[in-house]
Amino acid sequence: MATDNIGALTTAFVPPSACLYTGNIWQIHTTYTDGPRADRRFELFGAPLDASPNCYPKDYSPRKYYSPGVCPSGYTIATAQTNAIGSLTETTHICCPSAIPMNLQTQRIPNPNFPFLDTLRCESTYTAKGTFTLTSSEEGREPTPAVYMHPSKPGAINAYAVVVRFQATDFASKTLSSFSSTSSPSLSGTTSSSPAPSSTDISKDSGLSTGASVGIGVGAGAVGLAAIIGTVWFILRSRKKKQRNAYSDGLPACSDKQHPMNVYANEISGESALQELGTTAVAVSAQRPSELEGR
After folding, report:
1. How many CA atoms lie within 13 A of 176 on its CB side?
2. Is the pLDDT of residue 58 over 90?
3. pLDDT digits (tens, 9 = 90+) for 96-126
């Protein structure tokens, strides 16, 4: 039973792929100095701790637990237990490798007949006769590949478990802070993940104050309105000019013979012109004298 806290394991540990492939089965030969069956061998999924320490989280021990902690990657929860500690509730997960079907150890622990099971909390049972390739490990010898034929009687492949404990509040604040630091507001119906810059952000980026930004906006609007008025005035003026030219082109040409009054136009001033003839002043009318019809 895990009784000591190793420390936090709040990020899922990812073991190397070689640690969890289905063929990583070992046969361990053990020798104990006490007990009725001191010389035993058992099948283990995953390499022994001393042969592959990198397959387990930092400072791992099968007799200890991580708190707060989460199961490593490639492991599944074999069992979950909930314990009430005063007003708090603590959950314990026993995590087993998921490469092959694993369950919680069914043997009684501690077991004088199988003392090695004290640290092997996971097992995958078999009932039919069969063979599988494994790595044989014996004290004082190099590990060697071997083909193992297991009997028809029930047996099991064992594995080390990773035990974690946590309270609901251990991850609530982390989840909230992670969401606050990574999420960004977005409008419904948009696909962009980045928020559109606000007017305040734009003003800050351009180095302009709010008053200067408003002044520039009003000035730009006035210039645009003046440009529109000027364009309309120019178009109307051009149309009127074309109409006058068209009207002038449609009038008949004038000559002095058609309009004899033009000959005397420079003599019409609204007053009688005085001319001297000897010593008598004669008033000359501005109108053209009428001619009498001949008899």
Report:
1. 6
2. yes
3. 999 999 999 888 777 777 777 889 999 998 8
Q: Is the pLDDT of residue 73 over 90?
A: yes
3-state secondary structure the chain: CCCEEEEEECCCCCCCHHHCCCCCEEEEEEECCCCCCCEEEEEEECCCCCCCHHHCCCCCCCCEEEEEECCCCCEEEEEEEEEEECCEEEEEEEEEECCCCCEECCCCCCCCCCHHHHCCCEEEEECCCEEEEEEEEECCCCCEEEEEEECCCCEEEEECCEEEEEEHHHHHHHHHHHHHHHCCCCCCCCCCCCCCCCHHHHHHHHCCCHHHHHHHHHHHHHHHHHHHHHHHHHHHHHHHHHHHHHHHHCCCCCCCCCCHHHHHHHHCCCCCEEEEECCEEEEECCCCCCCCCCC
Gap between the Cα atoms of 190 and 272, Å rounded: 92
Count CA atoms within 13 Å of residue 265 on its CB side. 6
Task: Give the Cα separation of 41 and 29 in Å (integer).
Answer: 4
Burial 224-261 (b: 16+ CB within 10 A, else e): eeeeeeeeeeeeeeeeeeeeeeeeeeeeeeeeeeeeee
Q: Which of 44, 48, 51, 50 is closest to 134 using CA atoms?
A: 44
**Pairwise CA distance, residues 113 & 75, whole Å:** 28
User: What is the β-pairing status of strands 144-150 and 130-138?
Assistant: antiparallel
DSSP state of 236: H
**Is 29 exposed, middle or buried, given 0-12, 13-18 or 19+ CB atoms closer than 10 A?**
middle
All structural domains of the chain with their residue ranges: 4-167
The token duo for 250 is 């449609």
